[in-house]
Amino acid sequence: MSDILAAILIALADDELIIGHRHSEWTGFAPHMEEDVAFSSIAQDEIGHASAYYSLASTMVGQTPDQLAFGREPGEYHNAVLCERPNGDWAYTLARHWLYDNADALRLEALERSSRPELALLAAKIRREERWHSLHAELWVKRVAEGSVEGRGKLLHALAEAFAEVRGLFEPFDNEERAIAQGWLTVPSPVLGARFVETTTAALDDLGLPVEIEPGAITTELIASSSGDLIATDEDSASITPAGGGLGGRYGRHSDDFKALWAAMTATYKIEPEATW
Amino acid sequence: MTTERAIWDALEKVKDPEIPAVSVVEMGMIKEVDVRGGRARVVILPTFTGCPAIAVIEQDVREAVGSVTGVEGAEVEMSYDPPWTADRITPKGRRELKAFGLAPPTGNGPVLVTSIGLPKTALCPFCGSSDTRNENPFGPTPCRALYYCSSCRNPFEQFKDV
Fold first, then answer.
1. How far is Cα B101 from Cα A142, in angstroms, rounded to an integer?
2. B120 contacts on A by Cβ (under 8 Å)
3. Is the predicted pLDDT of residue A238 greater than 70, yes or no?
4. Distance in Å, alpha carbon of A37 to nearest chain B alpha carbon
5. I need a surface site. Which of A9, A16, A153, A204 has the fewest CB within 10 A?
């Protein structure tokens, strides 16, 4: 049974590691210096959260957090596809940051009630830190939404683009129903997804941003569509149809974007896996 | 002096390498110290999950406790129970943070105050003015935010509320 929990912890960690890696790509390149600092710091937080989740899983699976973070093949990572997409422009970065941190806040609120005390306590700790990320994301989305016509237009476009893949964050984990039965998870992912649509719709409305969200956007069954760039790297799950709409990540199905990210992220580790820092 | 008292004294000399002015005890990071038959156990509450200094602090605590007379083995644990919060910093710790040039946390968490949502201002650690503004809710370490004092015209950092 502990392998079921370990797999869920690793998927949670993978989301944080991969979005953290994307945020870290702004180090030295953000449009102004304060944001260079902010995204670097947020990246450090997210990677720290990933490390904490991997640490919980590591005793269950007999691998170190570093081995889990950098020693797996692409098809073994279970992060949502949304996390692996390139930063694109500043608007996409902000849109994804805002959507991801809103989703993460709902997820952490549910994890805080986990029957596994070590997970509940970690979630409570992470949630306190994540308030700063939400504050940062809200500040920027609001600033751009109330700003120039051009910026607002770019933000609207980016929100629609990111939202199209957001459901991957609410794709059920492997053996989720068993984890729910044990009380390790307290809210099924599709239910969290429905809450997310509700709160996000209200927030967009408050901001006066007309982003069209279909009512069943998240809860709709995991419809298989063949968007060409999704790759299947895990032969064992070949029975699962390659997914579109941001789905597939929880089953190790990633976009080509992930391959490039993975190669860069693991390059140093692979030179000397046993090195200590 | 009991071994336990001696361990607390030893811990007073362990500092966060990024804030060398304040001990881990004053920062409220030590949850408990246990001594049983020469075996010491210390539980640390990390300030921020992603704090890169934690591994160094853990090592320093192990060494400090291990060198106390009467201690034959030291065990150091990390815990999030309870989560470390800003109100764990002792009054002495707050004074030391300020003397180091780092504004202590407000204790209010991230609070929205203006229409574009800047966090509540901190008191300037140099001149004490409240005429300060947040420049960035993030800073050079996970635990710091950047401010500017409009009164003495110094930039400064605050240990963030969490």
1. 32
2. none
3. no
4. 6
5. A153
Grade residue A223 by pLDDT with cuts at 50, 70 and 90: very low
Q: Do A121 and B137 touch (CB under 8 A)?
A: no
CATH at A51: 1.20.1260.10
By residue range, what is the domain housing residue A138? 2-271
Angle between the N-to-C axes of helices A149-163 and A117-145, in degrees from 0 to 180, rounded to the nearest 10: 150
pLDDT in tens, A71-95: 999 999 999 999 999 999 999 999 9
Residue A22 has pLDDT above 50, yes or no: yes
Give B127→chain A minimum CA distance, Å: 24
**Residue B96: inside a domain, yes or no?**
no
Min distance A16 CA to chain B CA atoms (Å): 12
Q: What are phi and psi of A2, to 5 degrees?
A: -65, -20
Facing residue for B50 by CB, picked from A48, A128, A136: A48
Query: Please, are residues A37 and A50 in contact by the beta-carbon 8 Å criterion?
Result: no
The total number of structural domains that make up chain A: 1
pLDDT, tens digit (0-9, with 9 covering 90-100), for A181-196? 999 999 999 999 999 9
Quote the pLDDT of residue B119: 58
pLDDT-based confidence at residue B109 (cuts at 50, 70, 90): low
Assess if residue A277 is contained within a domain: no
Spatial distance between the Cα atoms of A142 and A209, rounded to a whole number of angstroms? 10
Would you place residue A217 in the very low, low, confident or very high pLDDT band (cuts 50, 70, 90)?
Answer: low
Rounded CA-CA distance A194/A106 in Å is 11
User: Where a domain ends, among B65, B87, B109?
Assistant: B87
CB contacts < 8 A (A, B): 81
Inter-chain touch A132–B110, beta carbons under 8 Å: yes
Is A276 contained in some domain? no
Q: In chain B, what percentage of residues exceed pLDDT 90?
A: 73
Residue A156 pLDDT exceeds 50: yes
SS3 B119: strand
The yes-or-no verdict on residue A236 having pLDDT over 80 is: no
Collapsing DSSP to helix, strand or coil, B36 comes out as strand
For B37-128, list the strands marked E by DSSP: 39-44, 73-78, 102-103
User: How far apart are the C-alpha atoms of A195 and A189, rounded to whole Å?
Assistant: 10
* B142–A contact, CB cutoff 8 A: yes
